[in-house]
Amino acid sequence: MEDPIKSHPLSKAGEAAVKVKITTNGTQVNGEALTWSPSSWTTKPIKQDVVYDDRAAVSKALAKLERCPPIVTPTEICKLKERLRDVALGKAFLLQGGDCAELFDYCNSDMIESKIKLLLQMSLVLIYGAGKPVVRIARMAGQFAKPRSSPTEQYNGKTITAFRGDNINGYDPEERTPDPSRLVSAYFHSAATSNYIRASLSSGIADLHSPLGWELGHVKDENIKAKYETIVNSITESLRFMKTVGADSAAGSLETVELYTSHEGLLLEYEQSLTRHLPSPQAPSDTTPSPSSTTTKQYYNTSAHFLWIGDRTRQPHGAHIEYFRGIANPIGLKLGPSMPSSEIVPLLNLLNPSHEIGKITLITRYGASSISSLLPSHIAAVQSSPHAGTVIWQCDPMHGNTRSTPTGTKTRHFEDILKEVGEAMRIHGEMGTWLGGVHLELTGEAVTECMGGSEGLGEGDLEGGGYKSFCDPRLNEKQALELAFLVAGGFRGI
C-alpha cells in the first residue's frame, strides 16, 4: 500500500522545528532571535511541548504540511479583522464557541451541522439582545490539541502519557505515544471540516427563512420561559414584517452569514508549517494601486482565521509569544487568575506594538468566585496604557468554573457560568469599558456534562451515558441557547 505521507524536502525552518521537537523536552533552548521568522520560536523556552521519538517521521510530516495548500486565505482573515475592529469599538459582539477538544471522529456532516446551527441560533438571539451585529467564530476545524496540567496519568496501576488530543496521540491507552503522522491527519480533518462549513453556508443552512426551531419545551422556569417567548416572538414578527414589505428578498444577508474558524495555537511545529508569506488583501477603502506599486506581504497562519494563546503558554519570553508576535492573524490571549496585572501591557506591546484596533482579544477566565477581585485590575492596567480602546474584552466563563464530583467526574455548574458572564458585564459597565464577547465550550449534541440550567441537571445525570467529552465538560444545545437568551436579556435589561 502506498505511503500517504510521501517524503519531500524540508525547509530550513522546518529543520529547526524538528531539532526542537526531538531534543527540548520542554527545557530552555539556547540562543536569542534577533529578528522574527516563523521558526524563531525555536530559540525560546517552550511550555506544553510535545517531544517525538522518531526524527525522520517528524521531518516527513512537517515537509508534507509545508506543501499543503492553505486552509484559510488572507482575504478571509482580513475580513475577520475588519469585523473584530468593530467589536473592539463597541459596534459588534463576538460569539466564539465549540468543542473543548475536537476528535477526528467529529468530522462528519451531522456533528458539523449541529454546531453551525447552534451558533447561528445563539447569534440571532444575541443580535436581538445587544442590538448590534454578531461576529461568529467556531472552535472548529483544528481545535484538537489541549494543554494538560500533567504530562502523565495513572491507568491500571501504570503511569502512561496523558491524552493530549487527536493530533498528538490516541485516547486508547495503547496509542499514547505521540505520533507525528497525526499532524498530517489533523490538517486533512481540519480542511474537510472547513470545506463542509463553507458548503453548508453557501447552500442555505443559515437562511433565516428556514424554521428557527427554538424548542423551548425543556424550560421549566415559567418566568424564564416567558422571557424566552418574548424574544422569539419579537424575532418572528420582525422576520414576518420584512417578508411582508419585501425587504427580506432584497437582502442577501438573510440567506447566509460569515462563520470563522479558530483553535488554540499550541503545537508550534504545526502552526509554523502552515504559516505563509502572502500578499495582503487591499482594504476596501484603499485606492486602486498603480502598476508600479509594490504589493505588501505579511506572514499569515493559514490553519485558521483566529488563534489564541493559552493561559499556560503565555510566558513573555516563551516560544508561543515569540511565534504569535509575527503573524498577521487576529490573536486571542487567555487571562487567568495567575496573570499579574503588571504583565498584561508588556505582552500587548510584544503582540501588538502598532496598537492595531481589534488585533488582540483578551479572553478572561477567572471563575465566578474570583472575577470581581481580578478583572478590575486587569482592565485598569490596559486602560492606563496606549492599548486602551484597542482590545476586545471577551469572557470565558467555562475554564475557571470546572469542578469534580465526589466520583471524580469533571463538570461545571450552569449558574456559575451565568454568574461570571453577568459579573463581567457589570464590571465593564462600571469601569467604562464593554464586554465585547463570550467564549464558550459547547456542542450541538444532547449531552449531559454541565449541571444546572432550566433542565435542572444534577450529578446523577452525568452518569447516565450522556457524558461524552474526552476532555472538559461542554454546554449542551439547550444550555447554550439558554445562556444566549439570558445574556441577551442582560443587554436589554429584561
Structural class: alpha/beta
Give, in spatial order, the strands making up the sheet with the most strands.
Answer: 1-2-5-8-9-10-11-14
CA-based gyration radius: 22 Å
Unreliable segments of 5+ consecutive residues? 24-33, 285-293
Biggest β-sheet strands, sense, barrel: 8 strands, parallel, barrel
Number of strands: 14
Strand content: 5-15%
Percent helix, as a range, is 25-40%
Structure description:
- There is one protein chain.
- It is built from 13 helices and 14 strands.
- With 494 residues, the chain is an alpha/beta fold.
- The strands form four sheets. It has an eight-stranded parallel β-barrel with strand order 1-2-5-8-9-10-11-14.
- Strand 9, helix 10 and strand 10 form a beta-alpha-beta unit.
- Helix 10 crosses helix 11.
Summarize the structure.
Helices cover 37% and strands 13% of the residues. The chain has 494 residues and is α/β, with parallel strands linked by helices. The chain has an eight-stranded parallel beta barrel.
